[in-house]
Amino acid sequence: AQSVSQHNHHVILSEAASLELGCNYSYGGTVNLFWYVQYPGQHLQLLLKYFSGDPLVKGIKGFEAEFIKSKFSFNLRKPSVQWSDTAEYFCAAAFSGGYNKLIFGAGTRLAVHP
Amino acid sequence: EAGVAQSPRYKIIEKRQSVAFWCNPISGHATLYWYQQILGQGPKLLIQFQNNGVVDDSQLPKDRFSAERLKGVDSTLKIQPAKLEDSAVYLCASSPPKNTGELFFGEGSRLTVL
Q1: B55 touching chain A per CB within 8 A
Q2: For residue B80, what is the DSSP state?
Q3: What's the pLDDT at B72?
Q4: How many helices, marked H, and strands, marked E, lie in chain B?
Q5: Which residues, in sequence order, are CB contacts of A58 under 8 Å at separation 6+?
Q6: pLDDT at site B1
Q7: Of all helices (H) and strands (E), which one includes residue A48?
Q8: What mean pLDDT do residues B1-10 have?
Q9: How close does chain A come to B57, measured CA to CA in Å?
Q10: How far apart are CA B75 and CA B68, in angstroms?
């Protein structure tokens, strides 16, 4: 079955710390990968996406993610987090042959302390 | 550009009552999705429309949930009768004609079933 898993449900960091959120998907075919973010009180919005090409993709607000096909992973990173990065982060995948249905992971709630 | 509009934002009902949620997607977006997000979980696709036709409703509990998009624009999701486990945020999303899985979300409708 097609699925997306996120390893950390809650992460607490201090400002300026580095961030890495894990994401794995289970499918061997073509996949488009996404990270969405939901800031407190706001709607889900796209942070970055990977369709093909350079496996290191850069998104908004200094975030980046690396697609590692051999590990079925798409981890999100940021070298130095800010208090304003406090949010819930969702990894998602659209699998080929599934009408681009987006399947989400359970989310990681990030709290950044000043 | 106006975003995805949803109403109501909040609804509290008793079990066995009915409720309806409305969504107006971004103008020109052919594909419309309804997702259910239970607290602590990622969004789960309930139904996907392409124009006014259903593409995927495999996870829609059809004994109590129904959805329509009669004119290929706005959509209504109905629950009748509601159960306690239907308490969730119901998210509507849309995507442009060249659908690659990138979705634009509304702010959601939070349902509490007592």
Answers
A1: yes
A2: S
A3: 83
A4: 0, 11
A5: A48, A64
A6: 65
A7: strand A45-50
A8: 91
A9: 11
A10: 6
